């Protein structure tokens, strides 16, 4: 399945302040919900319609720490990540339930709610360090002119 792609991008606002907890190794795990909207024109009435979807997001490590430090409820961000669905059993009925979330890989601060909210930081893309999947070290290629 080398041609499969699991990548999502969103622009939205945090629905509440991020919540962080820490794994035994000290890495941050930060969770928050992101409100993303869409607008369209109703074909029958010609009226403008809007809807909001809530996306559950989890960020790990340094990216989680940065989100926790600089993002507040109402902060507008661009987010890139992958979709993950977890299966669990309902405690009351024992029925199978599913929960879908986005595991964040990259984030960029876009602004804040009415000039309030997140502390000012340089306008740059922030990403989680990639996991090294091979023993190949490409660090010597910075000087290659192409």
List key phrases describing it.
146 residues, mainly beta, five-stranded mixed barrel, 1 helix, 49% strand
Describe it.
The protein is mostly beta strands. The chain has one helix spanning 61-70; strands at 8-14, 19-22, 28-41, 48-60, 76-89, 96-111, 125-127. The protein has a 5-stranded mixed barrel. The model is unreliable at 117-124 and 132-146 (pLDDT under 50).
The side-by-side strand order for the widest beta sheet comes to 1-3-4-6-5
Number of strands: 7
Query: Helices and strands, in N-to-C order?
Result: EEEEHEEE
Which stretches of 5+ consecutive residues score pLDDT under 50? 117-124, 132-146
Q: What would you call the quaternary organization?
A: single chain
Number of helices: 1
Average pLDDT, rounded to a whole number, is 83
Q: Which bin fits the share of residues in helices?
A: under 10%
Q: What is the structural class? A: mainly beta
The largest sheet, given as strand count, sense and whether it forms a barrel, is:
5 strands, mixed, barrel
Task: Quote the beta fraction.
Answer: over 45%
Give the overall silhouette: globular
End-to-end Cα distance, whole Å, is 30 Å
Q: In angstroms, what is the radius of gyration?
A: 19 Å
